[in-house]
Design a protein that fits this description.
By secondary structure, the chain is of the alpha/beta class. The protein folds into three domains: 31 residues, no CATH class; 142 residues, Aspartate Aminotransferase, domain 1 (Alpha-Beta Complex), CATH 3.90.1150.10; 255 residues, Type I PLP-dependent aspartate aminotransferase-like (Major domain) (Aspartate Aminotransferase, domain 2, 3-Layer(aba) Sandwich). 34% of the residues lie in helices and 19% in strands. The strands form five sheets. The chain has an eight-stranded mixed sheet, with helices on both faces. It has a four-stranded antiparallel sheet with strand order 1-2-3-4, with no helix packed on it. The chain is globular. Its cofactor is pyridoxal 5'-phosphate.
Length: 473
């Protein structure tokens, strides 16, 4: 008798036909008149017991975990000013360019983009991205581009293709919370490397290197930074690349804020100078380190809800080889990719948006950042750190001078209660005793918010006693 031979004979219920129970592909089947049907197997469950998966249980957004637990009851006598939301469209003062809107209208009217696209995106749209970001130092072709549903999916695919459960990734601290949310849900360990506020949020290179081991799958570098608004110099990026090269660790470069960079240098309240005049891509500086660069339309083009992102595969030395590329293609097939209408408009968006749109956005962010920095620098107990890119400014709180509050979460919660100003506590970025301000609000609201923060701090500020200062010395 063969391996799939007859195991037993049963009389079929109500049919009077004799069947044979066979095993095939690990399942019991009954043979009736030459045809195979799955055999009915009694359920071993005696009652309903449906539980969420381990991935679902392990998925946690640190921002939501903190904010959802806060008691946010604004002062009814003051209109709410939310400086916490990283969406540049919220207040309506930063619309996208009319050329971008027309490109979308044309894509819809053409009726060419109503169907399914390839999971990695239309070839023509991928080529448009490749042309836009290609440089002599880091050439790109359509095959080097994967289109995604926003930069968040790009980051998800990049982590998924590089890491297995039990691996670890190196993530900046403070840093964007999504990295940890994605990694931990997949059983990947997150190691936080320090950014240095006293050096305009540069990477602590020694600490970064000390975290690398044989299970390190990638280093995530965010430049320009969320939540810091910092921009690394070319020299500093090269130092990060040297660390990655020494240990043969690829880099996931989150460059969603690419080119949202101040065009002047800022002299900070201390003697150091914050460099922020350019934001070179990591790939353009890499001699050997393979890089998956993630970006999208959301921030530079001010359309986060359109959900169009991309992965740029930089692998001139063929270290990723075909397997990583094939892995990204396979992972992209889990869903049907980025919105086809936006893909249809993409070539026009990239090629026809006027430079004046970009410069106007950057000038506004720069001006608001300067207002916020100057206003809060004069507030006792606060230490703002001037950004040079993105949409954020981080502000340090000297908690010893605010004994009414336990921590930054308590501080920002009370700021809402008393002044109706909501700043995101930096504990959401695993960096306590700071808060993050989004600088995309209209200028008059920025001025008003800073005035309220000043009033709040003056109410609660308590200078440290002379005795405690003597002890510190």
């Amino acid at each position: 008798m063969s391996e799939n031979g007859v195991l037993l004979k049963n009389k079929m219920n109500g049919s009077g036909l004799k069947g044979k129970a066979l095993t095939r592909n690990g399942l019991h089947h009954v043979q009736v008149n030459g045809s195979l049907y799955p055999a009915k197997v009694k359920s071993r469950r005696q009652c309903w017991e449906v539980k969420p998966s381990d991935m679902a249980q392990n998925t946690l957004n640190p921002i939501r975990a903190i904010v959802d637990g806060m008691k946010l009851n604004p002062n009814p006598e003051k209109p709410m000013i939310a400086l916490s939301i990283g969406d540049p469209t919220v207040f309506g003062n930063l619309p996208t360019d009319k050329v971008v809107l027309q490109a979308m209208k044309d894509a819809i009217d053409s009726q060419k983009f109503n169907g399914y696209a390839p999971s990695v995106g239309y070839l023509q749209s991928r080529q448009a991205v490749a042309n836009f970001y290609s440089s002599p130092e880091a050439p790109l072709d359509a095959q080097d581009v994967i289109l995604t549903s926003g930069c968040s999916q790009a980051i998800d695919l990049a982590i998924s293709v590089l890491c297995n459960p039990g691996d670890n990734i190196l993530v900046p601290c403070p840093g964007f919370s999504l990295y940890k949310t994605l990694a931990v849900s997949m059983g990947i360990e997150v190691k936080l490397y320090n950014l240095l506020p006293e050096k305009a949020w540069e990477v602590d290179l020694q600490h970064l290197e000390s975290l690398i081991d044989e299970n390190t799958s990638c280093i995530i570098v965010t430049n320009p930074s969320n939540p810091c608004g910092s921009v690394f110099t070319k020299e500093h990026l090269e130092k990060i690349l040297k660390v990655a090269s020494r240990h043969c660790v690829p880099i996931l470069a989150d460059e969603i804020y690419s080119d949202m960079v101040s065009h002047r240098q800022w002299t900070r309240h201390k003697t150091s100078v914050f460099p922020g005049c350019s934001s070179p891509s990591m790939a353009s500086l890499s001699a050997d380190v393979p890089i998956l660069a993630c970006g999208g339309l959301a921030k530079r083009w001010l359309v986060p809800g359109w959900r169009l992102g991309w992965i740029l595969i930089h692998d001139r030395n063929n270290i990723f080889g075909s397997e990583i590329r094939q892995g990204l293609v396979k992972l992209s097939q889990r869903i049907l990719g980025a919105c086809t209408i936006v893909q249809g408009a993409l070539e026009s968006i990239l090629n026809n948006t006027p430079p004046s749109f970009y410069s106007s956005t950057v000038s506004f962010l720069q001006s608001n950042s300067e207002i916020c920095f100057n206003e809060l620098s004069a507030v006792p107990g606060l230490t703002p750190i001037m950004p040079s890119g993105a949409m954020y400014i981080m502000v340090g709180i000297d908690m010893e001078n605010f004994p009414d509050f336990k921590n930054d979460v308590d501080f920002t919660e009370r700021l809402v209660t008393e002044q109706s100003v909501f700043c995101l506590p930096a504990s959401a970025f695993e960096y306590p005793n700071y808060f993050r301000i989004v600088v995309t609000v209209p200028e008059e609201q920025m001025v008003e918010a800073c005035g309220r923060i000043r009033e709040f701090c003056l109410t609660h500020y308590r200078p440290r006693s002379r005795d405690s200062n003597d002890l510190d010395q």
